[in-house]
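Purpose: get a first structural picture of the assembly so the mutagenesis plan has something to point at.
Setup: two entries, given in the order below. No constraints added.
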Amino acid sequence: MPAGKKYDRYNSMLVVPVRMHHRFRALMWRHVMNARRVVVAAALLLATFIGSGGTAAGQQPEPPRVPDLSGGWLRLDSGSGSFDGTVAKHPPAELTAAGRSMVVPGDGRNLIPQGGFTGPAKQAGEAYIVNSGACTPEGTGGSAINPNSTAIFLLQSKDEVLMVREGPGGRRFYMDGRAHPDLAKLPPSMYGHSTGRYEGNALIVETVGLTEGNVQGGGKRRPETRLTERFELGSGGKRLTITYTWDDPVLYVRPHIYEYVFERLPEDSYAFETWCDASDPLQRQSIVPPKQQ
Amino acid sequence: MRKLAAALLPVAAILAGADPLAAQTAAPHDISGYWELPVDGRFVPRARLSPRITPAMIEAEARKTTKAIRWCNWVGMPTTMDVGRPLNIRQGAREIVIMAESPVAPVRHLYLNRKTHIDKDTFDPTTSGDSIAHWEGDTLVVDTTGFEPTKGITEIPGGGFRTASAHLVERYRLLRNGTVLSVKFTWTDPSVFQTPHSYEFRYQRVEKGYEPWPYQLCDPFDQERAAFLEQRQ
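Result (C-alpha cells, whole complex):
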C-alpha cells in the first residue's frame, strides 16, 4: 500500500458527511424552522448516510470499515486438549528439499529441547519437556507469533496496532503505510517487522525478519519468509479468526496455511500477568497434560 | 452551520456504529506515541521512610533486585517506567497499553472502562498491579493497587519499596505542545513511608517513524553474563 493511503481513507470518511451537509443545508432551512429539529434531523441524516456506506456519484468508494478488534481474546482449543493436539489439526506443511534439510538452531539458548514439537502428538497423561526453563518475553515457550493458551490483547491506534500477551513484550503492526526495511539491515527477531492494513472487514498483517525457527504443522521459517495474517471477526464480533499464511518458495512447495479461532473475552475482563523465574528448578520440569474425560 | 456539522459528526458516527479509530482519534486526550526518559528527566527527592523500616529490610529488597536482574525476572512497577529505552504508549477506547522496550518489563494495562479495582478476593497480585485510569481535565490519572511484594524489582526511586499495601497514583500530562510527557508518581504506603512519596519523570516524545530495535533477549544461562552480575553480590 502506498505511503499515506490509509490517511486518505480515514480523511474521506470524515469529509464525505460534511459534503453532504452542504447538500441538504438549503433544503433543511427551507422547510424546518425549529433549531432542535434541525439538530435531530441532521444527525439522523448523517447517521443514515454513514451507516449505509452510501457514495454519491463521483465520490470515492467506501473506505474499508475498521473492525473493532480491540480487547482480549482467548484461543479456542480445537485439538485433543494438549498443546500438540491442537497443532496436529493443522494441515502439514509441504516443504521443499531445502526446507526439509534446514536445521533450526533456535535462538541460541536452546529454549526448545532437541526434537521438541517435531514428533507425533503426545498422548494425554504423557509427560514431556517443553522448555529449558529460560524466560522469554512470551513466557517459557517463546511462542511469539502463534498464541498459546494465554489470552492475547489487541489495541488499535491510528499508527499502530499492538498485540500483547500476559507478560513482557508484544507485537506492533505499523499501520502508517511504511514498507519493511531492507532485510540486510534488519536484525532477525522473534517478532520480526510487521506492517498492517485494513482490507474489507479484515486486518491484514505482513511480517518478515523473523529468526530462523519452526512453524506450526511442521513448517520452517527464516528472515526472508513472509508471514501474512488475516484477522477477521465472526459471530457478531464475538469470534476472531487469524489465518496464517507462510510463504517462502525456498522452503515451501506451496504456502503453508492454518488458522486459529479465538473467543472475545468479556468487556470487564483484564489481563493476567504471567510469572517466570528461571532460577526456579520446578520450571524446567515436564508438563503432564491432565487425563481427558 | 459548520460548527453544527462538526458537533454532529461524532454523534452520527456513534449512531452509525462507525469504525472505532475514527471516534478514538477524535478524542481530546491522547498520549499515544514513543516516549524516552532523558538523563535530565528525573526529579526524585529522597523518600521519608517509616521508622519501622530497618537497614536489614532495605538490604533484603536490594537482594531481590540483584536476584531479579540475574535471573531475568519480570521487573514490574516502578522499574517498567524506567528501563533505559523508550516506552510505547498506545491509547484505545477501553484501555491504554504501556509497552516498555525491554524483554523483562511486563506490559501495563491502564483500564479506562472501569472505575473500580478488581475485587481483592479475585485479583491475584502482580508486579504491575491493577491499574484504572480516567481523565481529569488535561491530566490522565492512573490509580494502581494489587501489587505483588516479593517478585521482580520492588525498589522505588528515592527510597522505599513496593509492598502488598502500596497504592500508586500517576498523573500524566502533556507539556510543551505535546513534545514532553510529565508523569508524577505518588506512592502511599504507611508500612513504608511516613508521608506519601512523590517524584516526577519527564519523557521526551520520540520522533515520528521511530521503530524499536529488536532487543537482546535476557539469557539467565549465559555464564559470562552471570559471572559479571555475581560480582555485585
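Residues 1-27 of chain B have pLDDT under 50 and may be disordered.
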